[in-house]
Amino acid sequence: MVSRVIPVEPFDLIIFGGTGDLARRKILPALFRRYCSGQMPESSRVIGAARSEMDDAAYRDFIREALVEFGKSQADNAEAIEGFLAHLHYVPVDAKGEGGWSALKDLLRDDENVVRAYYFSVGPSLFADLAGQVRNRGLSNRDTRIVVEKPFGHDLESARALNEELAQYFHEDQIYRIDHYLGKETVQNLMAVRFGNMLFEPLWNAQYVDHIQITVAETVGVGGRGSYYDKSGAMRDMVQNHLMQLLCLIAMEPPARFEADAVRDEKLKVIRALDPVDPDQIVRGQYTSDGEMPSYREDAENPTSKTESFIALKCYVSNWRWANTPFYLRTGKRLSSRASEIAVVFKETPHSIFGIDSGRHRNVLSIRLQPNEGMTLGVTIKEPGPGGMRLVDVPLDMSFAEALGPEAEEVTDAYERLIMDVIRGNQTLFMRGDEVEAAWSWTDPLIEGWERRGDSPKPYDAGSAGPDDAAFLINRDGRRWRGIKS
Ligand code: NAD
């Protein structure tokens, strides 16, 4: 397969936090791969801006190492690395002070044909400072874009305050709130499958769908960022943003066009249609030590922590399409496998002509986010061989790497697509301010509820599928979790 590279305008991309972990592991390797694909115009520049004192040469040395480590198939392409590094510059800047701003201004090109984008890859406490600095120091125009990393707020109040602060300096159409799950190839394919085929959409409703499962399971613990994580937990860190965005794409009505506001309007309606969740439909967990690796409380350096490293919940989207269809969400750390999947489980046929011996069968559309991005449709067929009509479920499998060739591996990185969307001015895969606030409006009362009751998360073994209660949550409805082993 030959991938089609859509040209973008020349750009100046300024990465605040250009020496940080995210810049090293994701943002710069993503830009490098776009460079290798020929998508980075010759006159484009990437300007790292952070607190450390260094010059262009030192920054290029620093990023060279990152590209060798995280550049995937281009990691040993020394010529390409040097070519890309020639586009890099560095300015020491203090987000809260005076230092560096005039040097940055001198470096930027005042040319309306050059897109200017600022990536805020710094801690959230600096987002508003940076927006103010960029605006007040005359470093932006009406076309300038800012990219804001997660977390976007800690609750509704802080998210609203941040939206208001950013709105003082930038219009909504200049603000790109990133959720890298939306940039994943499979997530976009979910929309292609739903809205590009006649096959699925007529069945995509409460009449034919039994339930939906969304799982994001990680094997890693909270490790080095334990004390930060302890202030948020799985609900804030994963459900409020990533899992809810996936739920929205599954549950939304077809937008009139694949355009930013048309898509985001439909996602917002889904979030607003979410029912509150009863406490007995939520299971929170915390991993224990397996003897070798530390427990959650040790990682978090908080021996009495009540923060969850695992959560499973059942919720409903109260509208005509989804009335009484359960959505089971589950995410956690230190689980038995690293697996992210959305599963649309269809109902059984209304009557089995093959008799009770043929068993119970349900079609499942499984959308895998990791590992091996791809989709599988489970269909029921006759078990081969003589001896009557026995039925068996087999997968119709579509692994992108297999179907589209090895290049598919290379185009899947979410940051590559999302950064290029920023340059193109396409906000479809970015969250709008009202969406983020609506998501917090749903999660806040749930969090307040368990905090008020003083609920403790259930301990679970590292390397398991989470607390037993998470299995009961779905088993008592006559269903079971898919995917990860207990
Ligand atoms: P980090 O601590 O590794 O890097 C922070 C960067 O900000 C450094 O370059 C530092 O020099 C710069 N910085 C700090 N204070 C500054 C100041 N006053 N003025 C100018 N620059 C300053 O953090 P990170 O892991 O790269 O994360 C950056 C952002 O991205 C955070 O909001 C984080 O929540 C988000 N994020 C990170 C990841 C990840 O995998 N690392 C994933 C998703 C989201």
TrEMBL record:
The record's InterPro entries line, in alphabetical order, gives: G6P_DH, G6P_DH_AS, G6P_DH_C, G6P_DH_NAD-bd, NAD(P)-bd_dom_sf
Q: Where is the active site?
A: H242
Annotated Glucose-6-phosphate dehydrogenase C-terminal domain ranges read: 191-482
Domain Glucose-6-phosphate dehydrogenase NAD-binding: from-to ranges: 14-189
Superkingdom as given in the UniProt entry: Bacteria
Residues at which substrate binds: H180, K184, E218, D237, K333
Q: Region Disordered: what ranges?
A: 283-302
What would be an example GO MF term here? Answer: NADP binding
The protein's UniProt keywords, in alphabetical order, are: Carbohydrate metabolism, Glucose metabolism, NADP, Oxidoreductase
Q: What class of enzyme is it?
A: oxidoreductase
This entry carries the following GO cellular component terms, namely: cytosol
Q: Does the keyword NADP apply?
A: yes
* Pathway, per record: Carbohydrate degradation; pentose phosphate pathway; D-ribulose 5-phosphate from D-glucose 6-phosphate (oxidative stage): step 1/3
Q: Does the keyword NADP apply?
A: yes
In this chain, NADP(+) is annotated as bound at G17, G18, T19, G20, D21, L22, A23, R24, R51, K150
Q: Name one Pfam family in it.
A: G6PD_C
Catalysed conversion reaction: D-glucose 6-phosphate + NADP(+) = 6-phospho-D-glucono-1,5-lactone + NADPH + H(+)
Q: What is its EC number?
A: 1.1.1.49
Q: Name one GO biological process term.
A: glucose metabolic process
Membership in a protein family? Belongs to the glucose-6-phosphate dehydrogenase family.
**Protein role:** Catalyzes the oxidation of glucose 6-phosphate to 6-phosphogluconolactone.
Protein's UniProt name: Glucose-6-phosphate 1-dehydrogenase
Native organism is Salipiger bermudensis (strain DSM 26914 / JCM 13377 / KCTC 12554 / HTCC2601)
Upper taxonomic classification of the species? Bacteria, Pseudomonadati, Pseudomonadota, Alphaproteobacteria, Rhodobacterales
